[in-house]
Amino acid sequence: MLTNTLSRPLTGRVAVVTGASSGIGEASAEKLASLGARVVVLARRADRLAELVGRIEENGGAASAIAVDVTDAAAVQAAAERVEAEFGGADLLLNNAGVMLPAPIEELATGQWKQQIDLNITGLMNAIGAFTPQLVKAAAERGVADLINTSSIAAQNIFPNFAVYSGTKAYVSHLSRHLRAELGAKKVRVSAVEPGIVGTELQSHVTDQGALEWLEGSKETVEWLTAEDVAEMVGVIATLPARVNLQQVTIMPTGQAS
C-alpha cells in the first residue's frame, strides 16, 4: 500500500481534463493517469478520445471519455453531472481547451476573434461553472482539490499580431489569481500554467502567413517545449502537499528569450 501511494500519489482522485484530444491536454491526461488518478477526458473528437482512453488503460490507468464542446454550457453541465453520478465528482479540473489564431488587428478577422474568445474564455468559464461545486465539495471532504488553468507566456509578454489570443490568456491568468484568493480558503488550489512555445496541434490552426513565418523561423533558433514537458508540471502541481499552491508557473524553452 505504501509503495502504491508513493508511486501513484493521485490514487483515489478524479481528474477532468478539457481539450484532451491532443497536445497538452492529451499528455496531461496520460500523466495524471500514470500518477493514479481516474481521468475523465473531454473534447469534441470522440475518436481521438477513444484512442487516448485505450492507451491509458493499456498502461494500467483508468480513464473515461465524454465527447463535448466546452463552448456549449448545457453540454458541459451535463458532463459534470455524469462525472458526479458515475465517479462521485471531480477533485481536479485541468482547463486546457483553447485555440490560437494570430493575425494583425487591421485584418479585422472578427470570426477568429470570436472563436478565440468563445473557446479560451467562455469555454473555460463553462467548465469552471460546472465543476467548481464538485471541487469545493471534494476539498471539504478530502482536504484538497485542484483547479489548473492552461494560460500562456502571452498573458505576460508582448507579441505583435497576437493581441486577441494574448488578451484571452491574460484573462485566464488574472482570473486564476482571483479564484485562488476566493477558493484557497476552501482548500481548492488554483494554478495558472503559462508555457512558452509548445509544439502542439495549436500551430496547425494558424492561418495568417506572417504568424506562420514567425513560428517557422523560431524553430531554427529555439527548441520548443513538448506537450509532455508541460504535463510533467501539471503532475507536480497536483501532487504537492495540500498546503502548497503554485499560483502561477511559467515554463519556457531554454532558448526562448520572451
Distance from first to last alpha carbon: 45 Å
Largest sheet: 7 strands, parallel
Helix tally? 8
Count the beta strands. Answer: 9
DSSP strand content: 15-25%
Report the average pLDDT across residues: 95
Query: Which outline best applies?
Result: globular
Quickly give the structural class: alpha/beta
Calculate Rg over CA atoms: 18 Å
The helical percent reads 40-55%
Order of helices and strands: HEHEHEHEHEHEEHEHE
Largest sheet: spatial strand order: 3-2-1-4-5-6-9
Any low-confidence stretches, pLDDT <50, length ≥5? none
Précis, in short:
This protein has 258 residues and is α/β, with parallel strands linked by helices. The chain has helices at residues 2-7, 23-34, 46-58, 73-87, 110-142, 163-183, 209-221, 227-239, and strands at 14-18, 38-43, 62-67, 92-95, 145-150, 188-195, 198-199, 225-226, 248-251.
Topology:
Layout: H1 2-7, E1 14-18, H2 23-34, E2 38-43, H3 46-58, E3 62-67, H4 73-87, E4 92-95, H5 110-142, E5 145-150, H6 163-183, E6 188-195, E7 198-199, H7 209-221, E8 225-226, H8 227-239, E9 248-251
Parallel strand pairs: 1-2, 1-4, 2-3, 4-5, 5-6, 6-9, 7-8
Helix pairs in contact: 2-8, 4-5, 5-6
Question: What labels would you give this structure?
Answer:
258 residues; alpha/beta; two-stranded parallel sheet; 8 helices; 9 strands; 17% strand; globular
Overview of the structural elements:
The protein has 258 residues and is α/β, with parallel strands linked by helices. Helix content is 49%, strand content 17%. The relative contact order is 0.15. The mean pLDDT is 95.
